[in-house]
UniProtKB/TrEMBL annotation:
HAMAP family the record matches: PLMT
Database matches in InterPro entries: PEMT/MFAP, Phopholipid_MeTrfase
UniProt name for this protein: Phosphatidylethanolamine N-methyltransferase
An annotated GO cellular component: endoplasmic reticulum membrane
EC number per UniProt: 2.1.1.17, 2.1.1.71
Protein's gene: Pemt
Length: 187
């Protein structure tokens, strides 16, 4: 038997029909779908490489678009959290600092992944024919598969705890589900 009382209580704080909440869900789901579709299209057609004159220029442009979309996603996530009620029992220093620590670990995974992979490794360079000499196995890849995805998820989880936001926790679950699907699709 699963005790769903906590989940029922959590959903009692979240208005899933709020337009900002819906926009946040759509932006969370859109991002990995977008970059996977565009990258596979580029791999099959080389259309972006032709338009931009080189695979590197095309990859850098796609990377810039992905970064912009991530900023939009984070903004929508934050606005959805702010428009929904806080969980009063979590609005304590220990929750805030726990969230801060989780976000810091997530940031460590994201930043160290970026440094290990470089820009083109991070932003789907392999779909543009920009291949690394060998698979990256150093930190954080030595301790976690897909550390950028799970680091990003941890950042959102920490952000939600810092704001004592049930809506943020639910949106973090959507982030985790979206990345899980992306990992299956990319694999």
């Amino acid at each position: 038997q699963v005790d769903v009382a906590a989940m029922v209580q959590l959903f009692g704080y979240v208005d899933v029909t709020d337009s900002g909440f819906i926009v946040a869900i759509l932006s969370i789901a859109f991002n990995p779908l977008f970059w996977n579709v565009v990258a596979r299209w580029e791999h099959k057609t080389r259309a972006l490489s032709q338009v931009f004159g080189s695979p590197h220029a095309a990859c850098y442009c796609l990377g810039a678009v992905i970064l912009l979309l991530n900023c939009v996603r984070s903004h929508c996530f934050t606005e959805a959290m702010k428009s929904q009620p806080k969980l009063e029992g979590w609005d304590w220093h220990w929750t805030y600092y726990s969230g801060l620590a989780i976000s810091a670990v997530g940031t460590l995974f994201v930043v160290s992944s970026f440094f290990a992979l470089g820009f083109t490794g991070t932003f789907l360079g392999d779909y543009f024919g920009i291949l690394m000499e060998e698979k990256v196995t150093s930190f954080p890849f030595s301790i976690l598969d897909n550390p950028m995805y799970w680091g990003s998820t941890a950042i959102y989880l920490g952000w939600s705890l810092m704001h004592a936001s049930p809506a943020g926790l639910l949106l973090t679950a959507v982030v985790a589900i979206s990345y899980t699907i992306a990992v299956l699709y990319e694999g």
